[in-house]
């Protein structure tokens, strides 16, 4: 028979996390939600008017920037996956004694701040740089520039979020039981079949975690669009930033933030339903 | 679905929510307790013996390296000088929640542009100055800045530096740009930038189209913003930028920009030049003010007085290269560095600024101004 003390243990363990979430997530969310339904200005104060029109305005006025944010983040996530998977695979299986060094290489850019890394891309991609000259020669930069184009912003997002994709992929590849691969070979599966039917399904949790960790922050990012993009690359994060800090229209900024969150959350639920919780929890779940 | 899976899904949803919270983190603290205020109960900053810590917020590249140290030695203070003002609106957005509670975040002096100084004064965020504490300002403030429209008797603001907004051009790449409208010449498509401060960009565009910015109507502001939106949308304007336009000019990404007069002297490229637009420039000042809740106004007065001594000011001017508000600096510099003393960007002649106007804001009350500002923000994203 368990004592009360034993039964309470999990709650005690959960408490710090829950309190943290409550103070820094639930409470601010409540104020943001309240603010998004008010009208007024910073200087005259805000009044609660249940202004659901803030939401209607947010969506109709800035649908372009919403769609663009999801498009950029989506392309960047796919690129991260295509670049990140082989990289994580190589580190996990082929790197031998270089493994730690290679992992360090993935994380090393984080020793410089995000902002500086993004701004250095501005120099690398400036109109007169060798990179752009080569691209122009190859007819890949039609206006003679890379900055202030979709490609620049997507490249920036891909670069900045790549480690968020590589690390979970590496973790799941590393955990993979090598004996399963040997078993596959013993049963006359080709390398390709082994990969598709053993490695890929078993690393699904890593892939999904990587996609979530990359896509969600990328969709709300505004730093890359600010520095590498032009007016036609403004993402929803830029709109929210300008609403808060430039126009000081807090209500509509809050409404925009909530709309973005809602869209991502709904998308996420569909994604999980589609991908299945089994895939997310992997072998652990199947073992039960 | 088993109970186990359901609870996992829940945990996952909470995690996802937490992750998406990152998206709304910016500015999230502005939510509660916003309230209006006015300047009916404004206080005068009191002075005493200056000592202790003085905290100043100013714009980047706006002071030389020696002045603060020398001031601390002379006054017996220890000064924390931070260049955390990057844009008037950003700074206001960050400071407003503090200032509305009578707290300046420890700052004793803040420096903002004319229109923002007026806005802060009207909201009761700054204190009235006791002029007996700043005799050098009384004595040396140049006449043209003594009675600005927003603060006719200089009751709460003391100019830090002044400057002109006009054209900044790569004269080797675009020698023929003389007027603001030349920026919209199709041959410079994708090679020009505008400033993201509405009060810099729009009045210059209006002047170029023959509208007097000082008398412009709401409609004329909106029409000009529409013209800007068109040029941003069709790719003529590459970007709408803050301070960073100068880097784009340096590496040739951009050949001409609306920019500030002092910036050209801070680049190494001699081909980057300030060009006075044919239809005139806009003249502004950044002003020192003592915010409400300033912990050490005595030291703030001491500092204001110190930089209004022509000798001390000359040292700042030599580094900053904007228009100095202090009389007598020209004479000091004439001895040290005659080239600077004759520079039209630092000591502009009347001829040089004959078409210029004081920086203006859109007409109307706060609500109307916010609508114009919103239109400008929307024009920035094409």
How is this structure best described in words?
- The complex is a heterodimer of chains A (about 290) and B (about 375).
- Chain A is mostly helical.
- Chain A has 15 helices and 2 strands.
- In chain A, helix 3 runs antiparallel to helix 10, helix 7 packs antiparallel against helix 10 and helix 8 runs antiparallel to helix 9 (about 190-200).
- Chain A is globular, with a radius of gyration of 23 Å.
- The model of chain A is unreliable at about 285-288 (pLDDT under 50).
- With about 375 residues, chain B is α/β, with parallel strands linked by helices.
- Chain B is built from 13 helices and 10 strands.
- In chain B, strands 1, 2, 3, 4, 5, 6, 7, 8, 9 and 10 form a 10-stranded mixed β-sheet that branches.
- In chain B, helix 2 (about 65-75) links the parallel strand 1 and strand 2 (about 75-80).
- In chain B, helix 7 runs parallel beside helix 13 (about 365-380) and helix 10 crosses helix 11.
- The interface between A and B is large, with 66 and 60 residues.
Portion of residues in helices of chain A? over 70%
Tell me which protein chains meet in the greatest interface and how many residues each side has.
A-B, 66 and 60 residues
Biggest beta-sheet profile of chain A: 2 strands, antiparallel
CATH architecture identity of chain A: Orthogonal Bundle
What are the main properties of this structure?
heterodimer, A: 288 residues, two-stranded antiparallel sheet, 15 helices, B: alpha/beta, D-Maltodextrin-Binding Protein, domain 2, 10-stranded mixed beta sheet, 13 helices, 37% helix, globular, disordered N terminus
Mind sketching the topology for me?
The complex is a heterodimer of chains A (288) and B (382).
Chain A lengths: L3 H32 L2 E4 L3 E4 L4 H9 L1 H32 L4 H9 L6 H11 L5 H8 L12 H26 L2 H9 L4 H12 L1 H17 L2 H6 L7 H10 L4 H26 L1 H5 L1 H4 L2
Chain B lengths: L2 H22 L27 E6 L9 H9 L1 E6 L5 H12 L9 E5 H9 L12 H6 L17 E13 L21 E4 L2 H11 L9 H16 L3 E5 L3 H6 L5 E5 L11 E4 L6 E8 L7 H11 L2 H11 L8 H8 L1 H4 L15 E2 L7 H15 L2
Parallel strand pairs in B: 1-2, 1-3, 5-6, 5-7, 9-10
Antiparallel strand pairs in B: 3-9, 4-7, 4-8, 4-9
Helix pairs in contact in B: 6-7, 7-13, 10-11
């Amino acid at each position: 028979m368990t004592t009360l003390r034993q039964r309470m243990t999990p709650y005690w363990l959960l408490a710090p996390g829950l309190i943290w979430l409550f103070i820094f997530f639930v409470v601010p969310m409540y104020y943001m939600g309240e603010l998004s339904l008010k009208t007024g200005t910073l200087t005259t104060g805000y009044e609660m008017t249940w202004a659901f029109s803030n939401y209607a305005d947010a969506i109709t006025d800035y649908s372009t920037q919403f769609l663009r944010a999801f498009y950029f983040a989506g392309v960047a996530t796919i690129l991260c996956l295509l670049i990140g998977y082989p990289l994580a695979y190589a580190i996990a299986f082929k790197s031998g004694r270089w493994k730690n060094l290679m992992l360090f290489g993935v994380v090393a850019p984080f020793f410089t701040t995000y902002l500086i890394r993004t701004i250095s891309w501005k120099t690398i991609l400036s109109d007169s740089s060798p990179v752009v000259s080569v691209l122009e020669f190859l007819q890949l930069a039609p206006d003679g520039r890379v900055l202030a184009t979709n490609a620049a912003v997507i490249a920036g997002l891909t670069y900045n979020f790549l480690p968020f994709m590589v690390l979970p992929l590496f973790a799941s590849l590393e955990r993979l039981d090598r004996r399963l691969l040997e078993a596959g070979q013993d049963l006359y599966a080709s390398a390709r079949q082994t990969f598709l039917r053993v490695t890929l399904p078993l690393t699904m949790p890593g892939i999904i975690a990587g996609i979530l960790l990359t896509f969600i922050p990328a969709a709300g990012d505004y730093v890359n669009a600010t520095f590498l993009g032009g007016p036609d690359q403004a993402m929803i994060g830029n709109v929210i930033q300008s609403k808060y800090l430039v126009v000081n229209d807090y209500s509509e900024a809050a409404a925009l933030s909530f709309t973005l969150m809602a869209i991502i959350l709904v998308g996420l639920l569909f994604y999980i339903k589609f991908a299945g919780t089994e895939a997310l929890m992997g072998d652990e779940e199947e073992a039960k | 679905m088993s109970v186990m899976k359901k609870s996992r899904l829940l945990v996952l949803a909470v995690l996802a929510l937490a992750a998406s919270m990152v998206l709304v983190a910016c500015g999230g603290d502005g939510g509660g307790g916003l309230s209006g205020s006015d300047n009916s109960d404004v206080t005068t900053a009191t002075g005493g013996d200056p000592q202790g810590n003085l905290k100043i917020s100013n714009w980047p590249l706006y002071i030389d390296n020696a002045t603060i140290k020398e001031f601390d030695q002379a006054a017996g203070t220890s000064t924390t000088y931070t260049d955390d003002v990057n844009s008037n609106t950003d700074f206001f957005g960050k400071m407003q929640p503090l200032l509305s509670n009578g707290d300046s975040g420890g700052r004793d002096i803040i420096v903002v542009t004319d229109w923002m100084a007026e806005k802060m004064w009207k909201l009761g965020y700054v204190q009235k100055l006791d002029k007996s504490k700043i005799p050098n300002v009384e004595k040396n403030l140049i006449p043209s800045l003594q009675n600005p429209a927003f603060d006719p008797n200089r009751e709460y603001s003391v100019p830090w530096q002044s400057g002109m907004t006009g054209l900044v051009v790569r004269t080797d790449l675009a020698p023929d740009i003389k007027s603001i409208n030349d920026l919209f010449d199709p041959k410079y498509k994708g090679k020009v930038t505008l400033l993201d401060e509405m009060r810099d960009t729009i009045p210059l565009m209006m002047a170029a189209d023959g509208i007097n910015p000082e008398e412009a109507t709401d409609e004329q502001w909106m029409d000009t913003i529409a013209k800007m939106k068109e040029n941003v949308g069709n790719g003529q304007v590459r970007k709408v930028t803050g301070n960073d336009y100068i880097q784009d000019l340096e590496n040739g990404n951009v050949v001409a920009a609306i920019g500030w007069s002092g910036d050209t002297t801070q680049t190494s490229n001699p081909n980057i030049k300030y060009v006075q637009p044919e239809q005139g420039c806009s003249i502004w000042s950044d002003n020192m003010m003592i915010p409400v809740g300033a912990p050490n106004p005595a030291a703030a007065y001491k500092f204001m007085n110190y930089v209004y001594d022509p000798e001390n000011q000359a040292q700042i001017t030599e580094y900053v290269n904007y228009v100095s508000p202090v009389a007598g600096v020209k004479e000091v510099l004439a001895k040290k560095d005659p080239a600077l003393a004759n520079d039209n960007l630092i000591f502009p002649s009347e001829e040089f600024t004959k078409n210029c106007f004081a920086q203006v804001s859109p007409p109307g009350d706060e609500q109307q101004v916010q609508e114009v500002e919103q239109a400008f923000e929307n024009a920035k994203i094409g």
